[in-house]
Structures are given as structure tokens and as C-alpha cells.
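WARN no homologs supplied; continuing
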Amino acid sequence: MLIREANNEDMPQVLELIKELAVFENEPHAVEITVETLEKEGFGETPLFTCFVAQIQDEIVGAALVYFRFSTWKGRMLHLEDLIVKESERGKGIGEALYNKVMQYAYDRGLKRVAWDVLDWNQGAIRFYERSGAKLMTDWRVVHMDESGLQNYIKRKDS
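OK structure emitted
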């Protein structure tokens, strides 16, 4: 297994992993992103994310997508958007290898924090994160405003 930084040629396989994650999270129709968008936003003039992949022979079997954020308390930090391992390859240390790569990436850059979300029913992931020393913030709630909510908010605000 090779853990490396992704390139734009990896994005078709990364998109397939993203779709597999959506199925795992019971949101099979939620993925709107395209290969073209991943290529443009990850490898264009001003990349918005970094992606690490786990590769076995010519197949991408896992991916971790990260991007920089800013904390008003801590400064520059890293957000782990998704850590995905192909279902048929889980339990083989691939997720841990990707996780290690993300943590090393943050450490090497002197970042003050790495943050991510985990579904409350994903007990395997929660146990792994807790064993790694990560702190689950049980008193915080994740808040999202989706596209239709944003449109409705702006329309109401402007009326």
C-alpha cells in the first residue's frame, strides 16, 4: 500500500469513493460534485483542498480530503472533510495510514488543531478517534445551511 498526495488523474477514483461514502452515510443521492469540479478546485490555480490517497497497485482504495481553516482562538488549522476507505478494504489499516498522513501533514506545518465531524452512529470511527487521543466535542452541534436554505434566507432577508 502506498499513501501519497493525490493528483488530478486520481479524481475519477476519488469520486467513486465519495459516492461509496454517501451510500454508507445513507445519503446515496446527495453527491453533486463532479470529477471536473474536483480537478478544478483541487488542482487549479488556487487549490481549495489537498487529497491524500491510499493506493494498492493501480487502484485507489482510500482517500482523505483536507483543507485549511482559521480559528479565531488558535489561528491556522486543518479540517479533515472526509476519510474514506473502500468497503472491501476496511479493517486492513488503510484508514489508520491515511489518518496518520493527515496528522503528520498538520504537525509538519505547525498547525494548532485538526478538526472533523463524525456521525454519532459510526461507533467504530468514534472508538478509533478516541484511542488516537482526539477529543469528541459532545457539547457542540454541527450546523449546515444548504443551498435551498441559503436561497430562502436571502429572499426573506431582502423582502
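Strands lie at 2-5, 50-56, 59-71, 75-85, 114-115.
OK
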